[in-house]
Amino acid sequence: MHFSEFTAACENLRFKELTMATDALIPLESNPEVMNKFLQKLGVPTQWGVVDVMGLEPEMLSWVPRPVLAVMLLFPVSDAYEAHKQKEEDDILSKGQVLSNDVFYMKQNISNACGTIALVHSVANNTDKIGLSNGHLKTFLEEAKPLDAVSRGKLLEKSEGIINAHKELAQEGQTNTPSAEEPVNHHFITFVHSNGVLYELDGRKAFPINHGPTTTDTLLEDSAKICKEFMARDPNEVRFTIVALTAQD
Q: What angle separates helix 149-158 from helix 136-144, to the nearest 10 degrees?
């Protein structure tokens, strides 16, 4: 299985739920060094950081430092993804699903902000383990906690400290930096554990997705199974990147 490293960008389109125009950002690169600088700038201690997941087979997964707090998948947005996304939403609206009130989820309003939202989702659902320093992210999470997903997305638009950190770190990385207006078609999502359940957090979807049981010890392996499903829907694609928020040596 091949994983290519490329810019962590999300689909540059105007989402139906937007009620106001929002400037697009230059996307963050899918690069652990850049992502860790972003997290540390926002108050995440160096004992936690992002690492590459080099493959989804057991041996490759065994190389990832533990504990794993979150798994993030970067994938190409395709017709197959859009069709599955719609069917999944229709099925859930028809049959329902169990969602924990403890899951922190927010909508994405800003084009090319999916990398930042994936990182915020990763940290926000692990604040009991991550000792956040006082700063822009801690303030945002405190203000966002009582809000609904849509209001959290709007609050992020106004969070200059987080947006400015994104803009600063988006200029770094190994690849050529695209412009904010350049059309891209890749998207970043997050998998987290909450109250014994594996949740997929995608700011473009209507709600979090309950993927069934997991534990803090099996989060990586259970997330890998869902990542394989994404890949199976686009068998001719190789442009998938997976990173994890883990303990650092």
A: 150
Residue the block writes with tokens 């006082």: 134
The helix or strand, by DSSP H or E, that contains position 52, with its residue range, turns out to be: strand 48-52
Cα three-residue angle 67-209-193, rounded to 5 degrees: 15
Residue with tokens 């108050």: 43
80-112 pLDDT tens trace: 999 999 999 999 999 999 999 999 999 998 888
Which residues in the chain land under pLDDT 70?
1-24, 173-184
Give the pair of three-digit tokens for residue 165: 């950190």
**DSSP element (H, E) containing 7:** strand 7-8
For 4, residues 6+ apart whose C-beta sits below 8 A from its C-beta are 238, 239, 240, 241
pTM (predicted TM-score)? 0.87
User: Could you give the residue numbers annotated as active site?
Assistant: 114, 187
Residue 49 phi/psi, 5-degree rounding, is: -165, 170
| DSSP code, position 181 | T
